[in-house]
Each structure stands twice: as C-alpha cells, then as structure tokens.
Design brief:
This protein is mainly α. The protein is 68% helix and 0% strand. It contains nine helices and no strands.
Length: 279
C-alpha cells in the first residue's frame, strides 16, 4: 500500500536513484572484469607464475571512457538520462552508438527509489529498501551478461538484510534468519534433485545465495511467493525464447534476474498480493 509522501522526498529519491543508477552501470560493467582479473592472479599464484604488472582497474579508476574511441567521459556527458538524450545516444567525440542499457539502468534506479519511498516513506526502512532494490538491479544485469551472481554482492546483501531486521525494519529477526536458511536450503535441494535426475546442474550456487538474501530481507513467509513469481516469469520467458528465437533448451538461462524481479515485487507489493489471494 502506497502512503502520502512529501513531494520533495519523492524528487530527492528520484535524483538520488538516477545518480546511483549511473554508478550501477559502472558496477555492472567493471565488477565481473575485476573478479576475472582476481581469479587469473590467484591461478597464476597457485602455478607459481608471476603476471606482468596490470594498470589499476576498479570501480573508480580508470575514468569512464567511450569503448570505441577511448574518449574520456566528461562530467557534462555523464548526467543521468539528460546526457544520453542530449547526445542522442552517441559518443560526443566519435559518434559511436551508446547502448540504451545505460539510461535504462539509470531510469530503473530512479523509479525503484521512488517506489520504495512511496511504499515505506522517507524513513530508515525506505532508505534500506532503496539499497536492496539497487543491489537487485546490479545482480540482474551482471547475471544476464555473465550468468554469475558474484559473492561480492550476494553475501553483503544477505548480511545487510539480517542487520536491517535486527531493527525489524521489514520483519522480526527470527523470521529473517529462518528466511535466509530456508531460501538457501530450498534451492540447494532443487539443485541436487535435478542433478540426480538429469545428471547435470540446473542452476548455480549464486541462486541459492540470492534467495537466501531475499529471505533475510523479507522473511520466510514471502519465499513461496518469490519462488512462484520467479518460476512463472522464467518459464514464460524461456518458452518464448524457444518458440520465437529458436533458443536451444540445453543452453543455460540465467535464473537470477527472475529471482530479483520477484524479490522486488514481493518487497513493494507482497503483503497486498498475499492478502488479495487469501481473500
């Protein structure tokens, strides 16, 4: 149920969300590359090899630049949504096309922040909900790109949910702890049943950790709704891709985005959905 919120709080949430959305684009693009570099360095160390020095690469350095011409993105070219529209989706230096994903992620960051504040108000619960939803956006697009749900995001998200519910921002701590355990164990069991029957893996361990994180934030009573919603959306998308795009059903399909979408729906509308169903 939405509540009355001062307009300045909604505007601030929108601007903050757009800004965070711009940073999420950096996380989505760079974090998998940072992890890959770290894994390569660890493998080289185990083999007793020494890799040549690598330039600094993290979420801050180097500065964002055009992937086609290497033109550094100036501050005026990096204003969320506005710059993309002003540049008509092209690099200011070479004219190369800029993916529409960048403004999409920025718009999602703003829209979800507004939704969280309208749902919970300008409170600590609302602020925590914004952080939860922004993390789901990053996980969604990273999983789409790489079919990975990095521990660097899923585990902090899980612990953040437990910490938030120490103060009962969403559910009592006991409900959150049971939710984290039940979320992990539920998909762990599905994984092993599928593997025993089909002889191959049906999902990754990141999915277990993501559902555990959703349980930590929203509590175990929301897990059935999350699983049903994510399974339904995943089935529809998978069947659609096979029918209209000829996708091979043996090619893995990332399940994390559907869990993330279901988690966002459960956060914002879960109680209303459950109450409507029970009526």
């Amino acid at each position: 149920m939405l509540i009355d919120v001062p307009i300045f709080a909604v505007v601030f949430a929108l601007l903050a969300g757009l800004t965070v959305g711009s940073f999420l684009n950096v996380v989505i693009h760079r974090l998998p590359k940072m992890l890959d570099r770290g894994w390569r360095e660890q493998c080289a160390e185990l083999r007793g090899e020494e890799l040549p020095p690598q330039p600094t690469y993290n979420l801050v350095l180097p500065r964002s630049q055009c992937p086609d011409c290497g033109h550094p993105i100036a501050a005026l070219e990096n204003i969320p949504l506005v710059s993309y529209l002003a540049l008509r989706g092209r690099c200011a230096h070479c004219g190369a096309h800029i993916s529409a994903r960048y403004p999409l992620v920025e718009a999602l960051g703003g829209a979800l922040a507004v939704g969280a504040i309208l749902r919970f108000g300008p409170t600590w619960t609302g602020i925590a909900a914004c952080g939860f939803l922004w993390a789901l956006v990053a996980l969604t697009f990273i999983d789409i790109d790489t079919q990975l749900l990095p521990d660097d995001l899923t585990l902090p998200l899980l612990w953040a949910g437990l910490v938030a519910n120490v103060f009962e921002l969403f559910v009592p701590l006991r409900t959150a702890v049971i939710g984290a355990i039940a979320g992990y164990v539920a998909l762990w069991l599905v994984y092993w049943v599928f593997k025993l029957i089909r002889g191959k893996e049906g999902m990754g361990y990141g999915d277990f950790k993501l559902l555990a994180a959703l349980g930590a934030w929203l509590g175990w009573p929301m897990l059935p709704l999350i699983v049903l919603l994510s399974s339904a959306v995943g089935a529809v998308v998978g069947i659609t891709l096979m029918l209209f795009k000829g996708r091979d059903h043996n090619i893995p399909l990332a399940f994390g985005p559907y869990l993330a979408v279901a988690g966002a729906i459960a956060l914002l509308f879960g109680p209303a959905i459950v109450a409507g169903y029970l009526r």
